[in-house]
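Sample intake sheet
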Amino acid sequence: MTKVEGPKSAPNSRAATARAEVARFLRFGLVGVANTLVGLGMIAALDLGMHVRPAIANAAGYAAGIALSFVLSRRFVFRSQRPARITVPRFLLSAAIAFAVNQAALAAAGHFLGGDPASRLAAQVCGIVSYTLTLFVLGRFWIFKG
């Protein structure tokens, strides 16, 4: 007599969802690295190579980095079909919100950790992590949702 098997169990949907979110977050991290390299590269080229005033070079590099971050986040990270007229203002507002969260985390961590160099660096890391997580969550559930 042969054993009759029931329907094969579907893959654990929670595990699949978790893997998809981890993959999305890793793509987000890659975009952050690309954004940083492009922004810093432009700043260095303008400031050091072309002798543009540092503040202008910084603003241009930041603008280039954030533009690249938007394009790659929309297409590569979140694979959104939402129109740019909706996502661009939300992305810019979200970057400002994430920066405010970064500053609050930096201040709080600085207060609690102290003022020695290692503590200041740890506070900066807290700020960076808070910025990254805030922008990711806003990107995932508000900017590019859908």
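Comment: DSSP finds four helices and no strands in the chain. The two ends are 51 Å apart (CA to CA).
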